Prior knowledge:
Pfam families: Hydrolase_6, Hydrolase_like. GO terms for molecular function: phosphatase activity. There is one protein chain. By secondary structure, the chain is α/β, with parallel strands linked by helices. 36% of the residues lie in helices and 19% in strands. It has 10 helices and 14 strands. Helix 2 links the parallel strand 4 (38-42) and strand 5 (69-70). The longest helix is centred in the middle third of the chain and has 12 residues, at 127-138. It starts with 5 loop residues before the first strand and ends with a helix.
Amino acid sequence: MTARQTVLLDLEGTLYTREGLLEGARAVVQKLRADGHTLRFLTNTDSKDTAELHTALLALGLDVRIDELFTPVVAAAVALGGDPTARVLVLGNEAITTELTNRIKVVGPHENPTHVVVGDVRAHLTYTLLDDAFAALRRGAHLIALQKGQYFLSDGSAHLDTGALVAALEYAASLTAQVVGKPSTDFVNLALRSTPAPANPRRTWIVGDDASTDIAMGIKAGLRTVQVQTGKYTLQTTDTSLPVADDVVESVKALPALIRKKAL
Length: 264
């Protein structure tokens, strides 16, 4: 019998695309769970709360438990949840601010924040909000970025992403943010901290379609890496500078058999 493994599964491009669930994805999740493995589902989304994402995954037909879903918002909560002195100013939309408020101590700009967390804030971004964050950083608060994307595409146009705002605050305050989303190894390590028992890196697998994020951070964290030939894979085949996974499989359908064959 295969020893219990920890499996970190990327979502978009690995289990589903914009066209829907990839063939065999539902059965793979069921098989991994039946085999007794610990699962975490990884996404870099910083614009929706965990409950909304969970509902969407269930609607797709994926058997995902809400406590298995790991986002940058959850990562920030895990990172700060163990610090009883943390007082967090959130630059984020209503959904993620509410989720963080339910998990950690969130304060206003004039309540001596010890940390500034930056996520998707496009709906109500103002100069005053940025200036309040800058003032907190100048007073010694730590800067945490939920992710550091430069821009995102929507309706055929490019739009500023969270990373652009983080870069402005880094420049103004002369500091470097801690990134708790992909491709930071902190994201992986915090995901492993969220599991019921300490994970053995030799028995921990990270599975994704993107060599520049999923595979890169898995290698840096010392995990076993598997790249699927779906999603972004075909866009990266000519880029020889990208890291190479321990195993490359046609799709996530091959994962249970691979783990049974190679698990330690």
